[in-house]
Amino acid sequence: MARLLIIEDNDRLARLIAEGLGPRGYRCDIAASLADGDAALAAGRFDAIVLDLGLPDGDGLDWLRARHPAGEPPALILTARGGLEDRIKGLDAGADDYLVKPFALDELAARLRAMLRRPGRRTETVLRVGDIAYDTANRVASVAGRTLDLARREADLLELMIRKAGQVVRRPAIEDALYRFDEAVTPNAIEAIVSRLRRKLDEAGATGQLHTVRGVGYLLRESTA
Ligand code: CA
Questions:
Q1: What pLDDT, on a 0 to 100 scale, did the predictor assign at position 46?
Q2: Are 25 and 109 part of one and the same domain?
Q3: Domain extent at residue 190
Q4: Is residue 26 within 8 Å of 68, Cβ to Cβ?
């Protein structure tokens, strides 16, 4: 699932974007200032940034010029400044795309998809462990070709575990992958998601199994039995 940082000081708009993109496969964190954006980027990995320009602690353009070397997540500028010169300035400052407010959520989603498809960006693929397959582009899991019906966090967990197949994944890494940094996580919540996913895999007769490594975390590997 792509992880998106929305740097936008209009709280209502930021939440609308986050709520609209959630069902389209994005996990969104919101930063209300450039300083908050820096803190979020330092704390976690993001696939893309949606950047407003008029922010309380500075201009997004200056921020982009100052801190957007190659290898940073690609940034889409989302602003009311719609003039030709503004758009050229934005792209020259290092933005990968530029969208003018007011905008349609569907167009924002399509532009983000296009941005993430570019070479050198996120690669979408089908990951496999035993007869479990996970299509990261469409977020569809299957066992021996039969689609599994997974809730959002179960799918996030499966994607994480299948990317790290054969390794023990520690609980903090799981919490980080399944929850935004501003969401509280109870210990039982992770246990519950793990046991639901494990039950669905078992019921489907998957040859990959989700093991508990007591006191450490979890491990997905192909059963050798
Ligand atoms: Ca603003």
A1: 87
A2: yes
A3: 126-222
A4: no
